[in-house]
Design a protein that fits this description.
alpha+beta; single chain; Alpha-Beta Plaits; 2 domains; about 35% strand
Amino acid sequence: MAIGVTMRLPGASTAQYDEVCRLMGLRPHGAGPAGLLFHWAAADGDGMLITDVWQERERFEQFAREQIGPYSRQAGIDAPTDTTVYDVHNYNYRPADTISVPRAPIAVVLDYGGTLAQYDEVVETMGFEHGSVGPEGGLFHWAAETESGVRITDAWQDRQILEDFIEHQIKPHRAKAGVDAPRSLTYYAIHNYFTAG
């Protein structure tokens, strides 16, 4: 089962993050390591926020043990990482070789009070299937159940494309399904991303 992972790295800088990626041999905006479906990283307050989706939990744990931990320490990231793992209900992504470099990629994390059944209804009425490529301009999307509802995490080519999609697609279909507006919506300027090769 696919898992979503969020990692908060207090005190980490974008330069340290870039060094970790260099040590891993990963090229910005390119293909990620085997087993990774998508990754984005953004500066967040006094540190970094990283969001991944992996095909399997075991592969993520192996990669964290063998590469994330050692290379993070080598780059001077010493503070404990706050990691949360989710069972992914649905995701879609664009493979690395189909993405033109975005002008200003943006991520958004939304928390809804609704249910996964309501989420499925909204996705279905918009005409998207689970595991599909997703809408034009979207880089990545995943949804997971939380204790208080549904969390959706997206990455888009730029904020205008995302806001147009919210206004003309999500809002009308969300209203039809009886889903309230999100309780929280947070935007992040993406520093870097990887996707499956």
